[in-house]
Write a structure and sequence with these properties.
By secondary structure, the protein is an alpha+beta fold. It is built from five helices and nine strands, in the order E-H-H-E-E-E-E-E-H-H-H-E-E-E. The protein is globular and about 40 Å long.
């Protein structure tokens, strides 16, 4: 697939808003890494600090959640189920503990590296169709926790001119026991790369 030719890094002001606004606007933006791997965001979930019992930051700042309370535009990476990494973007205002989980990508560049990182994937769809799959495919781990996406040293989020869908699908979040009824998940309706429709 062709590499991204035109792109614009998302400014800090993009992230410095309520996660319920940021999340659907992240759809069709591109997560790009310095080694050429890139994927279009097709599924996200919002987490809203003290207003959200499912958020890691709900009970306040801890060593694990410190990044969530920092400046918007940083990456919050956490370990789950004792085996998987998940990547989030921190949203403003600073101190709120908000984030948006990136749940699925459509691979668009560097697929050879993605397959090397995910040798069990049988096709392009399986490379990044879930939060743990995409971090494996993009080689995102605790090393990227706290990474400034605006400066974009290792990874960044860019706008390559594809707008968010006018009417994204909105559903409840997946795999939660707390606040499972909050409709804070969005995905691109026509995308075959969504983790679950």
């Amino acid at each position: 697939m062709a590499a991204i030719k035109k792109h614009k890094k998302l400014p800090r002001s993009f992230y410095n808003r309520d996660p319920l606004i940021v999340a659907p606007e992240l759809l069709n933006k591109v997560l790009r890494c310095h080694d050429g791997r890139a994927g279009r965001i097709v599924e996200v979930e919002a987490y809203r600090g003290a207003d959200d019992p499912a958020a890691h930051s709900y009970r306040g700042k801890t060593p694990r959640t410190e990044v969530m309370f920092g400046r918007p535009g940083h990456m919050y990476v956490y370990f789950t189920y004792g085996m998987h990494w998940c990547a989030n973007t921190v949203c403003g205002p600073q101190g709120a503990g908000n984030a948006v989980l990136i749940r699925a990508l459509q691979p668009i560049a560097g697929l050879d590296l993605m397959y090397a990182a995910r040798p069990l994937a049988r096709n392009d769809r399986q490379l990044c169709n879930g939060p743990a799959c995409l971090t494996q495919a993009m080689s995102i781990s605790k090393l990227q926790n706290g990474l400034d996406l605006v400066l974009g040293d290792t990874c960044t989020l860019v706008d390559d001119g594809v707008p968010p869908p006018e009417q994204p699908v909105r559903t409840t979040r997946i795999g939660l026991t707390k606040a499972a009824d909050y409709p804070w998940r969005w995905y691109v309706d026509e995308s075959a790369y969504v983790s679950k429709k």
